[in-house]
Give the backbone structure.
Amino acid sequence: MDLLVFGIFGLAAGSGIALVSLGLVLTYRASGILNFAQAAFVMVGAYVYYALRVEAELPGWVAVVGAVIACGLGGLAIFWAVIGPLRHSGALIRVIGTLAIVAVLQSLVTIIYGVQARTVPGWLPTGSFQLASGASVGQDRLWIFGIAVVLTAVLGYVYRRTAFGRVTSAVAENVRSTAMLGHSPDVIASLNWALSAALAGLAGTLIAPIGVLTPSSLLILIIPALAAALLGQFTSFGVTLGAALGIGLLQSWITNYSNNTSLQSAVPFAVIILVLVVRGRGLPMRDHIYDSLPHVGTGRIRWIPLLTGTLVGAVLIIWVIPTTSVAAVAATLGLATICLSVVVITGYAGQLSLAQYVLAGLAGFMAAKLTAHLPFLLAVITAIVLAAVVGVLIGLPALRTRGAVLGVVTLGMGQVIYELVLNNTDVNGGILGVSVQSPEILGWSIDPLLYPERYATACLLILVLLFIAVANLRRGAVGRRLLAVRSNEVAAASVGVSIVESKLYAFAVSAVIAAAGGVMFAFLQTSVIAGQFTPLGSINIVVVTVVGGIGMVGGSVLGATLLPGTIIDQLLNISALNLYLPLAGGLLLLIVLRTNTSGLFEMNRLQLAWLATLVRSRMRKSAPTRRTTPRIKHNNESDECPPITPRALHVTDLEVDFSGIVAVNHVDLTVMPGQIHGLIGPNGAGKTTLIDGVSGLVKCTSGRVILGDVDVTRWSPVQRARAGMSRSFQSLELFDDLTVMENLAVAADTFRRRRYLVDLVRPEHIELPDLAHRVIDECDLADVLDSYPTELSYGRRRLVGIARAMVWGPSVLLLDEPAAGLDDAESAELARVVRALANDWGVAVLVVEHRMDLVRSVCDEVTVLASGSVIARGAPEEVLDDSCVLESYLGVNHQNEKEMRTTS
């Protein structure tokens, strides 16, 4: 019978989760955003209800209506003020915008009501419902369940049967087409945001009376709510309700057997992982839309300013700053180090991690535990290594997901770690924390209480060393590979970049940096209070880092000053300033996202650079200096291009089936070394899909792909690229975060794994093989090597994509519509380059092309596809005169073609 009672409690809890999840479905259907701020609206609704019911002493139904209306209007306002203006930004930027909303709303509630727990009277019937066994449950639990079921049914009807629901679905499907039909996508989306926020407000009035009301207790609802919405694929209200009820039941039944809250928290996390394993992909689909992320710095180290600044900082700490403020300086440095970890994982690698603060706390906690048994340095090193291992485990889901969904997973994993370790009173020392031994380095005490200047100076030196390492990482081969993955995983894999290694490396390095910052911050006190490192703190860390500049090393320091307890607190000496700093951070983030996503550090740097350039220009009476091409280190090789290994490409009985739709139907073709094989056909014939199958980007249903004499059918795209198979893309797929030179360097680099460590200390200058220099000259790219692809014309960007595919001398080259967007002169130059590559180097070239003049001029053999099947193959003139080809591809019959030729 306990199972029945706990089951009813679980249904009530799951119903509360469902109300939050349904709002997530609404905002995603309308605007395609994972709204992390949904639980913040639950919090606002609960506190508005509290203010009206308890403080204003209004009737329950009036308080409920007031909370729902207030949240609805708030959702409407936030859409027009924040989400709407960001509609042309990448999805990840918009998600970060919702994190800013969380920070602002949480700060406002905390400023007004504080963090102390409050009891809230309910507005539902409070009587008990008697079960057959004599046990009883509150009627309000059953009412919550009923409300969730009714609202789910109503939403399902509205979005299936009404005009508003159909228009919302149309907006989600195609914004442009909906606008052309006379509907405003922004109006539709804003109404859905208002409805979602109102639903969250209602959830707040239902959930708050069940327990105690605190800001954090309601915000953490976002984790199980996102898990339920994920199961419903952010589209189905019914499945989302069922998933939420299932999560609530499992958590409640676990409570029946164990009081361990970490097990309850693990349920939604397990659901998320299950969904990702089933639905995730190692690489996104070819049509995956990549996010536009903030600009990344060059990683150039200006040694004189750096060393001067470090020396000045040490002097200020030791002799100038009052002793009472030195601890705040050390706290700022520790938090800046944690922010620096976000620069690596999100700024460089493009992976949204919402577990960095928890990782920092875990490292501080473990180091405190270990100092009782090991010397300080050894304890810290051990804790950092263990944190790196945990960081890699947190990064494993990134191998099958990306973007905002990855943020959901890392937030969930951070919650599990927090509940299992940091908030577990059995191991964390309770309110007294874990005592730490006095830290010392090689017998030299740096105790923060006895020698605060020494401790702060040590923190400064550690941060500077990590600054140098992260800047070195950006300039090295590893940094370029990380930025390639951030820009475009598919294209990175096609040039041999290991997505798995790159992502896990980024998670490991960022975990090491976060761990170092966590130790620096935690050891400021005589005992480590692990419970202060909450998962929601990770959101604040990301928020302030984006404000400072998530792609800039210096942005981590600027962002850290917006966190409570830092030097800004001490310098301004304003009472309760730490309550307002998160609010300021959230508001600044919204401003940054609206104006310049590169952050305040870059904005200030650009202003200073502009002033310096202006001064130099006036002093020299000349124009500002232009950018110079980066120094390139050449191989010491002869002028002759290094030989490649000529290998043929054999495709046998290849089939690609997408859920019953055959895109490629048992195709055979062979491309010999030195041969250019053209692949033509009408749109939708399966040409690009065939290249995707050959290069490994899509899974083939049957057939074989043989490179030389090696069967590579089961190989990944990275393995095929490293074996000598290269490709270009119809949609370019360049690395927009890297210069043209760096794009070529990523493809041409003969990467060695030792660079994962060496690049942190001594990054090498870009070194291109002789073939790359030849390709640069052939494609006339020498004058744009230091430009970003987005700064070039479309024709030149097309040439960059082709050059990137050729720079490392592949045995097989797959070109997907290489002449698209090129004028006649550029097309002729392309034909010459491709022909020379086949003739001089013996490369086997398979080219998909619609320009028949190019096909006739360069191809030795042509295969024609129609509806995924081969309808003709042979020499270009023979195939292009075939009547079947003329009718299916060119849309004319054979007689008309003869007449056209005669006329011409």
About this structure: The longest strand covers residues 661-671. The CA atoms of residues 102 and 158 lie 29 Å apart. Residues 622-639, 894-904 have pLDDT under 50 and may be disordered.
